[in-house]
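Reviewers of the previous submission asked for a worked example of the structure-prediction workflow described in the proposal, so we include one complete record here. The input consisted solely of the amino acid sequence. No template or homolog information was supplied to the procedure at any stage.
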Amino acid sequence: MEIIDSHTHIYPDKVAEKAREQLQKAFNRGMVDLPVISNLFKHMDEAGVSKSVVACVASRPDQVVSINNWLFSLKDKRIIPFASMHPYFYGYRDELKRIKDNACGIKLQSEFQLFFADEEKAFPMYEELQKLQIPVLFHCGIELSSPGEVRSSPDRMLNVMRRFPELKIIGAHMGGFLMWEEVLEKLAGKDIYFDTSDSLDEMKKETLAKFFEKHGFDKIFYGSDFPLKCPAKEINLIKSLNISEENKQKILSLNIKRLVNL
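From that input alone, the workflow returned the following structure tokens.
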């Protein structure tokens, strides 16, 4: 059974320790390992993962190009690059063309990047992403590092989907971390993908069953959220689900392969 991890984060070796300290402080939880490529590969090998999406986030517009330069330099067949982008980055059109040639998608994390998912300033970027058919992995739901108003709530994501119906959206954390009842009501069953990162051990079993019933199995991906979570443990949660082997395979690799044309 092939396994592809659709949600991981790593950093250049020279800044990884500082990144770990900042993330642990922000999330008030420990990392499973130092977030560098060698450790990601180690955990992939232990878990039997063939490829991983590496998702990069630019907290500020001026970080976009340098972060992408590093990501594009990795050039490893086990890495599926999801590049950084920021809605306030002036050169987004040229950079998205470069991303189209060098990556499989982008990552947006509105709580870190300080924008609301459905604010009009982001619309030109969404329009270009839709035109270029570049998938977007959104952090969705409550962000433990930023308590307060949710910038990527199910309502806001629904606004984006209605305005840009051809935009390929992956809603991380089953579409809305700690907001799953609202996701079930407003997003499940619609044209949006969900990843399982940081969710399966938090959700009630009956809630997850309702997701499968309403959303089906063709638009859900396995994701670990390494270094926050251990890939092997997250895979075991999926393997233990009371669903068919065919549907487990869809979640573990087939769906993400279809989306990014692997």
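The first helix runs from residue 13 to 27. We consider this example representative of the routine output the project will generate in years two and three.
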